[in-house]
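Lecture 7 notes. Example A: sequence first, then its structure tokens.
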Amino acid sequence: MPNKTVFITGASGVVGTVLMNGLTDFNVVGTSLAEHDLTNYESVKQVIPDDVDVLIHLAWKPGGIYENGVFDPANVEMALNVLEVAAEKKIPRVILASSVHAKEYRPNYKAATVISQTRPTSIYGATKVYVEEIGKYFAHYRNMQVISIRLGGVNIDDSVNGKDEEHYDAIYLSHKDLLCMFNKIINQQELLHDFTTLYAVSGIQQ
């Protein structure tokens, strides 16, 4: 059986770089925001190949994450365009990069879950929730499988101390665990639901 083709948006970011280099069992191609304007539907349609098995949408315009007033509509527009093109090209599975900031995590290291209602910790987190809801629409009404992964903290140094962020050890996600999760999702033949939310951290550091 030929290797699956995986296409990644935001391929030059930290998570994208780890996936581009580490998903060695697949035919992986991608694009970055520096290469293509994903807020332009025709550009998205042109850059995403027709023969993609799994599309991973990581692209996100850089900016402040934690400031309560930060909102960039381009991030929603990019997600809409990518999902619309995926539906048009009949790409069967799309993975959306959400964030643990879509659901409050506690300083006492009590793990957040995806079962209870969302409680975004910032406008960044709220935007991720919005993108998740858009993904639900495409999963339920546009004939595709959508997996939203609420990613923990991935850093270039692959260190639990890799970012100067309060309680970072509670949300740290290692490169190894990141690759393990994506490998399993890409290889999984059947999913229980058309839309799935997953919470991805490496473990609680005591």
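Example B, a different protein, same format:
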Amino acid sequence: MTENKFRGFTLSETLITLTVIGIAAVLVIPSLIRNTTNKSRIALLQNTVSNIGNMVQSEMARERAQSVNDFLSDTQDFLEKFDTVINGKSFASSYAAINSNTSYSPEMDASVQLKNGTGLGIILDEDDDFSYYTIVIDVNGIEAPNKIGIDYFELKLDSDNDFDEGIHAGDLGSFTMDDLGLEKLSEVYSTCLAGGADGAKACYKLVELSGFDPEYLEKDYSDD
């Protein structure tokens, strides 16, 4: 009769294996969740920007407008053309910077909450000549983390044509380096981390330049 030489794992060996697996899970799973969450946020940001751009172009065509001002005189009415929640809470009261505890409380002229939870708002330009509008996006509304560059961003909607500068009415995208008063990408990166209104604009610029890479903050901006 052949002797069965197979020996099972002892209890101590099993416990050690489970412990190692548990430690690995504790180390790896949070990173996986964070990466997945970052991808979801940036994908939602990109989709929201695309939808806003499509809506602007649709309104310009419908109104045969030469300027965004021709149909955006009522900013709240414009935002309510999107798929919104009635009386939804679209934005947190304040937003923290990535690398500090400083906070920023945006003052919007109009805002709505989209049915997917995204907060969408508009800030009129400071000179009140409406040469551009600041579009404000919080990809998950009032939900945490409420941090500039993580879930809160600001971008620019040009109102009028300026062909000398290559600007067309309805252009939607990041603020230029001149708009931000910056010369290097390293400065844009540090401004993003510092938070505030300029930080929200700088962070979106980096997102756009990265091609909406969820890991845009991990890139090296020192050699620009």
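Note on Example B: The helical segments are 11-63, 75-79, 177-180, 185-194, 196-209. The beta strands are 84-85, 95-96, 103-104, 110-114, 119-124, 132-138, 152-158, 172-173.
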